[in-house]
Amino acid sequence: MDRLKIDTCPLCGGQQLEHALNCTDHYASGETFEVVRCVHCNFLMTQKVPVEAEIGKYYETPDYISHSDTQKGLMNRVYHWVRQYMLSRKAALVKHCSKISTGHLLDYGTGTGYFADTMVRHGWQVNAIEKSPQARAFAKKHFGLTVDTETALPNYPSNNFDVVTLWHVMEHLEHLNEMWETIHRILKKKGVLIVAVPNPDSYDAKKYGEWWAAYDVPRHLWHFRPAVMQQFGAKHGFILEERKPMPFDAFYVSMLTEKYKGSKLSFVKGLWTGTCAWFSALGKKEHSSSMIYVFRKK
Predict the structure, then answer these.
(1) pLDDT value of position 54
(2) Measured distance CA(164)–CA(156) in Å, rounded
(3) I need a surface site. Which of 41, 115, 168, 180 has the fewest CB within 10 A?
């Protein structure tokens, strides 16, 4: 199996990468992967992950929620409850940030299509991209969505979209700078990019350390601190307009982490940590388990 050996930071170009921590893939393989830190800009990266063409087996589990839509188990049911609430919040965020009621939106990494369908029902013209054939089939069957594969992205015309969204997708992408460049090209002048990613500076990440479920190695190649995400936007011609916390994520992530640790009463312990994380994020949103970043094209 070919693996990606990172020797140069994709953000600053620095070549001094130091060991940060070792994380185990508790979800699929049981393998351990090293997370390294760029000495110059503090960007965290998972080292020696399978290359994009070969990483598919690490998603091939019936419980991978964004691809299978499974409701098996209490924690996945919690995920679904929260998602239903967040869909309306996300739609409102798109309208607020874009300053238009309807427009043309690209949802990259749409999964099973819930958000794309929500935006269609709000009157938006929506293109959606998803790598997983199972997820694309689900979106077609349940929502009537025609979802493109990732090969369609370079063929979209320039200055085409009012909004591009990546909900917990950016951390998976091998060709990171190329993605930022393409998004900048296909967005209209002053178009909006909305990115949601886990936050390794969060309360729950610091509490759990290498056990934190949102490191999710090797599926998560990149781990974006708030300052790092702002630097990526600036590097590629974007202005960071807003940062918003995703406090509900701490509950799901903490419950999953406690499960991985083999804790008794993992649901209760995760609920307690999620509650502590919630209050921590109220005091400082940069402590939120996941963050939403709203960028505007210069």
Answers:
(1) 87
(2) 12
(3) 41
- The DSSP output letter for 246 is -
Secondary structure (3-state) at 226: helix
Site of tokens 């951390």: 171
Which residues 6+ apart lie within 8 Å of 154 measured at CB? 182
Residues of the chain scoring pLDDT < 50: 65-68
Alpha carbons 176 and 162: distance in angstroms, whole number: 21
Q: Provide the b/e sequence for 185-200 (b: ≥16 CB within 10 Å).
A: ebbbeebbbbbbbbbb
Coil, helix or strand at residue 260: helix
List the structure tokens of 72. 């098996």
Which of 204, 210, 129 is CA-nearest to residue 169? 129
Alpha helices in the chain (DSSP H): 65-68, 74-98, 114-121, 133-143, 176-186, 203-208, 226-235, 249-260, 266-283
Burial 120-159 (b: 16+ CB within 10 A, else e): bebebebbbbbbbebbbebbeeebebebbeeeebeebeee
Percent of the chain with pLDDT over 70: 93
Strands 104-108 and 125-129: parallel
How many CB atoms neighbour CB 283 within 10 A? 9
CA distance linking residue 132 with residue 117, whole number of Å? 17
**Helix or strand run (H / E) with residue 70:** none
Token pair for 162:
């009012």
Q: What is the pLDDT of residue 70?
A: 54
